[in-house]
Amino acid sequence: MRRETDPRQRQRGFTLVEMIVAIVVMGVLAGVISMFVRNQVTAYSDVAQRADLADQADTAVRRIMRDLQSAVPNTVRVSGNFLEFVPIRDAGRYRAQDGVPADDELDFTNAADNSFEVFGPGVTVLAGDQLVISNLGIPGADYYAGDTRRPLTSTGAGLNALTFAIGAGQFPFASPQNRFQVAMPPVTYAFDAATRTLWRYTGYAIQAAQVTTIAGLDALPGVTRAALATDVNVVTSVFSFGAAALQRNAIVSVRLTLARNGESVTLFQQVNIFNSP
Q1: Contacts from 154-158 at CB under 8 Å and sequence distance 24+?
Q2: Which residue range forms the structural domain that includes residue 158?
Q3: Using CA of residue 174, residue 146, residue 198, residue 229, what is the dihedral sign?
Q4: Quick check: is 93 in a domain?
Q5: Is 190 in the same domain as 68?
Q6: Domains in the chain: how many in total?
Q7: Of the residues 131, 156, 183, which one is the last residue of a structural domain?
Q8: Do both 171 and 238 map to the same domain?
Q9: How far apart are CA 148 and CA 115, in angstroms?
């Protein structure tokens, strides 16, 4: 005999109204949760972006400061968004006149004297390096005018004697402490407004007048450039130079601002420039 099934025991599904209510409730819960999650994700993204900008700016400023600390005395030039200087590869003391004929001394009264012995550890010279003595950065003793530099003709590592091309004649002034520097090719740091980039230029020949345009730097024979920082706010980024005085050395100030997606970081640094030749 067949038994009738109790309607109350039949399995029931969701009604359309119940499904709609469940979807609405889930949507409300998801919206509330997303508000909290979005704030956390946004905060994390902002912190990560600021940290990236700060790290990039700190690296760039430190590189500039380190380069400037090894600049040939009185070779720093600043004009607007452009900072130029001549880095030192090596340095030492030359043998001055001591009255001993056998010694290879540097005689500033002899226009043909083009060699001298190095006191102390040997120095390193690469092709294209310049010998610099008593660069004062004034008319008659200016590196960029060619007064205080001569091309070195001896190259190598650990050199205890140096020879150089006389060119226009002997150096105009002796160094009070018998110092000399081996100078590398000049370096320029430039803020580029078009690409919002801080560039480092090197590999170009010495220019009598400072080049103060990006196009002009790019056109120099042999020049190479590397991006030191991007996302640069050129309006608030600036180089400034305080000339040396009797009471202090020269001072170079660098203000670098990086900005991206509404976040910005500004670093300011100053460095004393050694000016004694």
Answers
A1: 154/125, 155/125, 155/126, 155/127, 155/129, 156/124, 156/125, 157/122, 157/124, 158/121, 158/122, 158/123, 158/124
A2: 88-183
A3: negative
A4: yes
A5: yes
A6: 2
A7: 183
A8: no
A9: 15
Q: Compute the distance between CA of residue 166 and CA of residue 115 in angstroms, rounded to an integer.
A: 10
Please tell me whether residues 102 and 112 are part of one structural domain.
yes
Tokens of 1: 């005999």
Claim to verify: residue 92 and residue 169 sit in the same structural domain: yes
- Digitized pLDDT (tens) for each residue of the chain, 277 residues in all: 455 555 555 556 667 777 777 787 787 777 766 666 666 656 556 667 788 888 999 999 999 999 998 999 999 999 989 999 999 999 999 988 766 666 788 988 888 899 999 988 999 999 999 999 999 989 999 999 999 999 999 999 999 999 999 877 899 999 989 999 999 999 999 999 999 999 999 999 999 999 999 999 999 999 999 999 999 999 999 999 887 765 667 889 999 999 988 888 999 999 888 777 7
Length of the chain in terms of residues written: 277
pTM of the full structure: 0.80
